[in-house]
Amino acid sequence: MAVVETRELTKVFKQGELGAVNSVNLTTQEGEFLVFLGPSGSGKTTLLRMIAGLERPTSGEVLIGGDVVNHLSPRQRRIAMVFQSYALYPHLSVYKNIAFPLRAQRVPKDQHRVKVAWAAELLGIQKLLERKPRELSGGERQRVALARAIVREPSVFLLDEPLSNLDAKLRASARDELEQFHRRVGTTTIYVTHDQVEAMAMGDRVVVLHQGVVRQVGTPTEVYDRPADTFVATFLGSPPMNLLENGDVIVGFRPEHLVPAERAPGAAIALKLRAVNVEYLGSEWILYGRIEGERFADKVVIARLPDASGHSIGELYDFGVSERHLRFFDKESTVRTEPRSLA
Amino acid sequence: MTTGVERAAVKGQDRGYLLGAAMFAPAALYILLIIGVPFAMAFMYAFSDVTVGSEGMSFVGFDNFASILESPTFRKSLENSIIFTLASQALVLVGSTMLALALNKPFRGRKLVRFVLLLPWVAPISLGAIGWKWMLDSLYSVINWVLIHLHLVKEFDPPMWLGEPKLAMLSVILVHSWRLLPFSTVIILAGLTAIPKDIPEAAEVDGAGFWRTLFEITIPMMRPILNVALLFGIIFTFTDMTVVYVLTAGGPFDSTQVLPSYAFTTGILSGDLAQGAAVSLFLVPLLAAVAYGMLRVAARSEVV
Amino acid sequence: MATRGRFRPTWRGLGHGAIIAVFTILLGFPFYWMLITSFKQTGDLYDLEHNPFILNDKPTLEHLRFLFFETRFVRWLLNTLVVGVFVVGITLTLALPAAYALARLTGRWGQRLGIGIFLTYLIPPTLLFIPLSRVVALLGLQDTIWALVVVYPSFTVPFSIWLLMGFFKAIPKELEDAAMVDGLTRFGVFAKLVVPMSLSGILTVVIFTFTLVTQEFVYALTFISPESNQMLGVGVPTFLVRGDVYYWGSLMGACLIATIPIAFLYNMFLDRFISGFTVGAVK
């Protein structure tokens, strides 16, 4: 097991253009499940590929277990990677797929059977060993890819959006399996995703990336409750955080914290909302309201309510947000600032 | 019981089939007349005594086959055809795999290189061959000039590329491979680009080096496309006479005579259509084998 | 240090460069040789003391003048062009509807017939030229280019059907359904929607057909003897040789002139040609 570290890691694909990854400094903790989260094009996959050794950094260093590995090829880095497509070798059986890393690293042949059996059992795919990849379902393929990754007992696991090829139902159970799997093997894992639900549910810590820059590193609660800037604030959470300009600051609050006035006594912000749309989502309601009055007039904000059956479109309602749920961002830099009073 | 709408739909379907048949018929008819009928005629001729001048013809059973099987030229041609095909296919397959792998990586000037590499394939075969005939000229061969200046051969006894039996065969094989290499390369290149980039990368992360990735991952995955390149290559080689005809006309002393050129000499130049047809029928078993191979490739690609 | 790559760049790069260089020279040199030969003075060509790779004297247009004004080269060029145009016309007329029929109208039979058509492409001229020489004579077309116009589609039609089938299958079915709902007949869909949408496929077929016509050798050699009715591919190597005398300068010029334009066209449409050969082994 090992710690992965990057120092000022940068990748510029085309000279003169903005880098895909810009001066990223990160350190994982031992045995941690670290998630790279960002929209497409945020550089998260490039960052992962540089750690794997599949992409050559323009500048900066990658360290694994305390040693600089920039000059090492992927095979020398003692890492395992699961690709988005799983990249199973189509002409080899499941058994041979899993055994391939052992053969490639010249593990003595008599150990192959035992190790493959161990990995297969860990993932519950003992019965699939004779099949070819094309005879497997999406979920089975994912498990084979994981087995192939675990079999050589790597020091670091790299996972590139491994759930994005599964359908929604399967994804939830696969997520659960992955978490259990990580708890069992305890290997340092870096996981790339654009799905905030996956990131929040699985990550010990989440690295939020945007345009090749790290916007925030923190536990899921930290990034959700105390977003570092307006990008993180709106990228995480669905519906996103409401942002309202107020002088040189931006005030933000989560939809679940925008509640009918009677439930927020002594609210720091009181808003008169004209309901423009009400959506019923089963477990909750989403209310879109246009602000009326002097302040923030005509802005639309979103409230997430346990029950909005009493609210009808076109009516005017009193809403409020209590002080402790307000977040403040500098208008210029979009970075979070000290709380201030809303004079 | 069918409703009116259903009946109309069924009728529409029928009309679709009818229209399909009508649109397909002209091509089918043409193919039947210009390929099917001559194909049947080739068999008929092989069992007859027809010549260029003859009015009618009578069937002579296996006489033609008996007489060509006794002919030393025929046996030499058959042997040459096999050597010619095997040797040039081995060269082409190895060469084009190497070249395709090299071309699959981006580098500066790749477009220009690709253009140059294609030239032998797009040049009319007979003209490419005549270019080589000049390069292999008995007196002014540029290849010999280089060899002489490198002191690899004696100045007054340079190799007669097209004049000595063994060298002539070698020349014919090399020139044909030269011509076929680009075709095979682009086909294999197409197969290579179809391999997702992830897979060789995964092999690399899994610890495989360049050679292991090449021989255990890339080449096995290229198998179907290599088969296609090989099957076409066999057809284009075993049944072609152009390079041989232009370079050596089968000589010296039939040392480069192949089945198609022998069929041409017998059937057209000597006017013995029956014997010529009998010679060319020896192409058929190989064609059938290749056709079977193609069917298997096609069938498998549908399964995947 | 920080920017060192994951490969030891020298060996792998060197091997890569060497392979490219060797093959480029092997495949391309004959064309350089044609080029330089066609501009060399005759004395320079046949002087063994001269370095053959460069022009030792002033370049000359004499070989090309001879080619254009004292041989039938221009006539052969025209013959080839005329045959090409007719064969393209016949090929499109037969292959377009047939390919659409196989791609859309004949259901499961289409697949099988399509492969059958593909297999006929494998039947070589060297198997058919003897009986066909008789057919051509019977039709009274011997020694005319019309013999070739009749026979050449036998190898362009099957391949074109196969190629166009692929194009037609790539057109979304919904689009055709929509057009029929909007009031076009099946044939209308083919003529007014499918054909215009497949222009690039049709262009590929045109270039492919033309290339094959210029490359064909066996039929032209068999069916036509008079010098003035020849095609390029046969005329140049057989009639630019007088007895034992080879007009190397003119021969090489002719080779280049016939090759380069086709090479440009072919290069532009390369990917489409390839798709016709891969039998679905590449998706």
What does this structure look like?
The complex is a heterotrimer of chains A (343), B (304) and C (283). Chain A is α+β, with helices and mostly antiparallel strands and 343 residues long. Chain A has two domains: 4-225, Rossmann fold (3-Layer(aba) Sandwich); 239-337, OB fold (Dihydrolipoamide Acetyltransferase, E2P) (Beta Barrel). In chain A, 25% of the residues lie in helices and 31% in strands. Chain A has eight helices and 19 strands. In chain A, the strands form four sheets. Chain A has a six-stranded mixed β-sheet, with helices on both faces. In chain A, α2 crosses α3 (109-123) and α3 packs across α4. The longest helix of chain A is centred in the middle third of the chain and has 18 residues, at 168-185. Chain B contains 13 helices and no strands. In chain B, α1 crosses α12 (273-281), α4 (110-122) crosses α7 and α8 packs antiparallel against α9. The longest helix of chain B is centred in the N-terminal third of the chain and has 43 residues, at 4-46. The two termini of chain C are 42 Å apart. Chain C is globular, with a radius of gyration of 24 Å. A two-stranded antiparallel sheet of chain C has the order 1-2. Chain C has one domain (65-278): Orthogonal Bundle (MetI-like fold), CATH 1.10.3720.10. The chains are: A alpha+beta (343), B mainly alpha (304), C mainly alpha (283). Chains in contact: A-B, A-C, B-C. At the A-B interface, β6 and α2 of A face α8 and α9 of B.
Fraction of residues in β-strands of chain B: under 5%
What letter string, H or E per element, gives the SSE order of chain C? HHHHHHHHHHHHHEEHH
The number of helical elements of chain C comes to 15
Oligomeric state of the chains in view: heterotrimer
CATH architecture of chain C: Orthogonal Bundle
